[in-house]
Amino acid sequence: MHPSKLPPYMGPFTKKIHRRLLLCFSIFCLLCSLLYLRIGLLGQSSQLAQTAARQSKYTLTPVTHRGTIYDRYFQPLVDLSARTVNVVLPGAANAGLLEQVPGERRSQVAELFERGTPFLLEDMQLEPLPGVYSFDTTSRYLEDQPAAHLIGYLDNEGNGISGIEKSYDDLLKSYEQKIQVVCTLDGLQQPISGLEPEIRITGSSGGGVVLTLDREIQQIVEEVGSEMLDKGAIVVMDPYSGDILASASFPAYSPLNLADSVQDAENTPMINRALLPYSVGSTFKIVTTAAALEAGADMTEIVDCTGWVDVSGQIFRCHKRSGHGPLDMLDALKESCNPYFIHLGLEVGGEAMAEMAARFGFGQSVKLAEGLTMSGGSCPAAADLISPAAVANLSFGQGILSASPVQIARMMAAAVNGGYLVTPRLVLGETADGERLQRNAGPLSKQILSSEIAAQLQTFLIHCVMVSEGQNALPQTVTAGGKTATAQTGQFDEEGNELEHGWFAGFFPAVNPEYVVVVLSENSGFGNTTAAPVFSQLADRITAAKNP
């Protein structure tokens, strides 16, 4: 109804209503202006803006990769284990997620939910859930990590503690790559609808160090060794370059469970037996034979083995107590006859024996990488070989003599590569991209035997495997040569039996050999029954893998 048509008595009342409405509207406008001003001031506060930004973004770093450790063919030896990382945002279906979490981890995950911030849930496959995002990455090590003793391991801060990880720590860190997950939340700390976490990758990829190892051969060595050796070592070497194609120590340790391995005093899995010195026994007869041939010994001379020999009143026995009977040099090496080699050693003399042992590298340590050194072991000098008994001891590999499996491989290489002493090598060089090699300078080799003597040694060693009856080193699919050994240690078990190391040092194929293989079976007895069968298996499996 129009005001002009209102009854006269209503006029004063309507005027009061209009004034009240005007007053309320004015107050409302004033409050809006004040609120607008306050919002503007807040928006101009840099401190509050930064705080808001920090509260709305969370950066998680689930993965930090170091540079890669490669084999000789750029096949990675680390980062081989796949794992899943889950990013969980606040507001996710807590109950649904907790139902998928194993019981032993459920309380821990529930506590993370209570914090109300994004968190990581690793190594767990989850069914799709709102607010849960999953992606795949890798772990540095496998439970059965290839070449664990050579590669080494990291501490909790990602620093190299042993092996190549320590030797090349700075280089591997320089190729570090980080994978970060950035989660954006609203002002109420809730996920923003339609906005998934952002994955950021920073740092280099592909760079690292390239080893001489062949991952395929390394895997074969570890599989065969773990099946056939309780304690010991296996080394596979290129006889011409000295490159270590595979090296394994048994028992192995897991980088994922270091505590148990460190505490295992009985089996000592943390030590690298391939680089440690052991009594070498009859493998040293290769050196004695070389010294005799160089001295002009008659290979056809016959020596009658009666099972023992008296040297200046000291009795030395043959492993065949009844004796081998008449033997020439070829058959004496095949039968590993101690009295025959004592005869050779005494003919050659202590000075020439010590000089030949040094030529073959005995007593010399070799650095494979910083912190990874092949022990030099022990080797008598000429002054230690004045007495005939000392010379006799050395002639068949006993006495003051020890060497590592890598050194025995070096010795065997010289016998079959034309007489050149190679330097064992583990690192080929570096790579910036995982494709191109910045090669280190190759190690030097020197000729220590004439090619004729080396060829004669190789013929003798082929005879030891291919002709010897009951030789357990004989492969089924490839020709080979080599020498067994059973080395006395001077240590005894609880029943009073002397502990002996079983050895086999060999090569295959017999002509133009591609591989030298040394097997040490620690404290296990005769080399022909403990180490030689391992060589046979390795030769067949490596041949099958490389010649499919």
Description:
With 548 residues, the protein is an alpha+beta fold. It has two domains: 54-211, Penicillin-binding protein 2a (Domain 2) (Alpha-Beta Complex), CATH 3.90.1310; 215-546, DD-peptidase/beta-lactamase superfamily (Beta-lactamase, 3-Layer(aba) Sandwich), CATH 3.40.710. 35% of the residues lie in helices and 23% in strands. The protein is built from 18 helices and 23 strands. A five-stranded antiparallel sheet has the order 10-9-23-22-21, sandwiched between helices. Strand 9 and strand 10 (244-250) form a beta hairpin. 41% of the residues are buried. The mean pLDDT is 89.
**Can you say what the CATH homologous superfamily of the largest domain is?**
DD-peptidase/beta-lactamase superfamily
> What is the domain total for the residues?
2
Largest sheet: 5 strands, antiparallel
Task: Kindly report the average pLDDT value.
Answer: 89
- The CATH architecture of the largest domain comes to 3-Layer(aba) Sandwich
Q: Taking strands numbered 1, 2, ... along the chain, how are they ordered across the largest sheet? A: 10-9-23-22-21
Helix content: 25-40%
Topology (SSEs and partners):
Elements: H1 11-43, H2 46-56, E1 57-65, E2 68-70, E3 81-88, H3 94-100, H4 103-115, E4 119-122, E5 132-139, H5 148-151, H6 163-167, H7 169-174, E6 177-184, E7 198-203, E8 208-211, H8 215-228, E9 232-237, E10 244-250, H9 258-263, H10 285-294, E11 303-305, E12 308-311, E13 314-317, E14 325-327, H11 329-335, H12 338-348, H13 350-359, E15 366-369, E16 372-374, H14 388-395, H15 405-416, E17 420-421, E18 427-431, E19 438-439, E20 446-447, H16 451-466, E21 481-492, E22 498-508, E23 515-521, H17 527-530, H18 532-546
Parallel strand pairs: 2-8
Antiparallel strand pairs: 1-6, 3-4, 3-5, 6-7, 8-18, 9-10, 9-23, 11-14, 12-13, 15-16, 17-20, 18-19, 21-22, 22-23
Helix pairs in contact: 8-18, 10-12, 10-13, 11-16, 12-14
